Here is the input.
Amino acid sequence: MSNVSFTGVAGYTHNYEFALQKSKNNPERLIKLANNLTKSMAESILFAWTNTRAVRSKDSILYTFINDNNKVNDKYINALESYDVVPIAWSNRNQYLDKLA
Here is the structure.
């Protein structure tokens, strides 16, 4: 499904570019896109994920595809990983095909 919204535990609605339903081999997967990952965007992604994750299946995963044409600050990548978000550089997207099928 594309352009999906979920209401989180705090009552806020958060948008995700894609939601892939649970399959035999993979849990529910949500996908966010980050054209220019800034501190503010990382914080927004993390709030949305924390709020949404509380009302989704415990094994749900958030993948964030990041445009890596420009340098991305490692602090923002590390922040995403600290909350179990899977950051994927766009140039490495093919390495995750099995997780997204």
